[in-house]
Structure formats: structure tokens, C-alpha cells
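Folding problem:
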Amino acid sequence: MAGMPEGPSVRKFQLLASRFVGQVVAKVGGSTRKINVDDLKSSRLQDAQVHGKNLFLAFVAAGCPLGPSTDNPVLQGEAASGTSSPAQVCAPQTHPQEEELQELQCSRPDAPGGPGSWLRVHFGLFGSIRANEFSRASQANKRGDWKDPAPRYLVVLVLHFESGGFLVFYNCRMQWCSSPVADPTSDILSAEFHRGRALDALRAPRPVCYTLLDQRYFSGLGNIIKNEILYLAKIHPLTQGSLLAPSDLEHLLDCAIQFSSDWLQSKLRDEGLHFQIYQKEQCPLGHAVMKGTFGPSGGYKRLTWWCPQCQPAVLSEVGEPTTVTE
């Protein structure tokens, strides 16, 4: 089963939407009741921005001049060349409801909607965007037909543009806001990502698998990235950051940046990425993989995979392993 869309996926969704910047919406459809889709008719898509796991689409009245675009030129170049900048990476993930509360801070709500406002899109567990095509089942169902399964492929919104192209939004949550409010220094896919602040967070006396999913420091990093980079860095997920050497924390952050960059690059080329530990029964060296559900006290617990041999538990100052029974 695929995980919740993480930073690289949302970056790709932004690129799909950016193709239609400057175009006027001719017709709308979809099942959403969160917004009045008629507000989007005859409006112009002005801009498309991504902050962590949120996509923001700006709409203006069709008669307004098209303002300067704030699209990320680095990503635009990557889309054309199929490469990605080493400085670009990915960010954390939590339970959909908890994440929603965290990421609501990325926008100013209570906008009336329609031209002059931003549409905030959050993709939940299975959300996605397609451009100029609808999702199709990968195989026939038990009845022998190819009808798209529901509700996983629920069409929330369809925007048909005057050019003849269209965007389809699946299984996502939407709301109007007056403007995106986000700190690019916490977005691991941003060139402005603040490495020092991220390292300070990782040094805290708490399991590193909790810190990596904290969107305040690793916006866009999700559960898949968390599992993969902890394996790549050979760190047990429940190791307290305060027990790790500075060089180990630096290496973990390097793995986060490189893995996220590689994942984004593969998505831009429409290629899959081979996972080494996520949902695996054996690690690449043939060791048995363990699975547990970990999370902060009172918070949501996330599935975690690790190899006890490649990622041994670190002893605390009193000689006890830092592992916790969940």
C-alpha cells in the first residue's frame, strides 16, 4: 500500500498545476462540498505554490492581468531536464488529523473564496492530481471490469480550462484562504531549508523517529522518508537524538536531503523508487526486519520498520537500550 503523499509527490503536483498558470477556468466539476465550485468559473489560475505537503493555487478574475509568477524556477528546470538540485529534499509526516492541525498554520483561513483568494489543497492518505487524464484501474476487479475503485479514486474537483486541458483532483481536502503563510526554512525541499535548526531539533532527548515527523522542522518529510533514511543512516528509530554523535546527526540529515532529492527526481521522470526497508520483510543484506508502531505519548503512532542488526539500539548513559515498548 502506498503511503500518504510526501514532499516530492506534492512538488510534482505543483508542476502539473503550473502548466495551467495564466489560463482561464471554463468549466468545473467534482464532488467537493467544502467549497462552492462555481466560484472558480471564469477565473484565471494566477499561481501555484507548494509548502511542505500543501499545494496553494491562486485565482484571480479573468480580466486581471497575469502578475509575476512565484513558481520555483529550480523545479521548473528539473521538470524539463529530469534532474533535481542536491539542495532540494523532503519533509515529515504525522497522522492526517494531527498533520492537518499543524499545517493549518501554513495558511490564513476565512477567505470568502473565488477570484482573489488562494485554494489550499491537502492530499491526505491517497490524494493526487492528474493533468489531461483521469485515473484508471491498474487491473480488472472481481467482476471483470475496469471501473475505478471507490472511494480511493474519488474525484473531488475537475478544472477544465479554455485551452482544452484539465486538472483532476482526487481524494484531497480543500479550503479557501487569503494567503499561504509558511516558513521555507523548515521545508526540506526548499533551497532555503535551515540545516542548523533541523540539527538542533534532532539533538533533543527524544526518539529521532518522532523528531523527523515534526513538520515545524521537517515540513514535507513523511513516514516513508523517515523509515528509509533511518535505515540508510543505520540508526535505530527509537534512539534519542541526544545520544547520537554530531557526525551521526549530520549523516542522518544528509540522508534525508539526498533521499528526498532522489525521490523527487524519480517522480519527475515518472519512475518508481526502490525502497530498502519500508514495508519489507528483509533488509538488503538479508536480515529479518522488525515492525513496530511508535509515536509520542498521547500522539498518533506510526508504523516503523527497522533492521535490528543494521540499526542496533544505542545504550543510554546508564547502559540501558533506548528502545521503548509501545
Remarks:
- The radius of gyration is 21 Å.
- The chain is about 25% helix and 20% strand.
- Helices lie at 7-18, 73-81, 96-103, 195-202, 208-211, 223-232, 246-268.
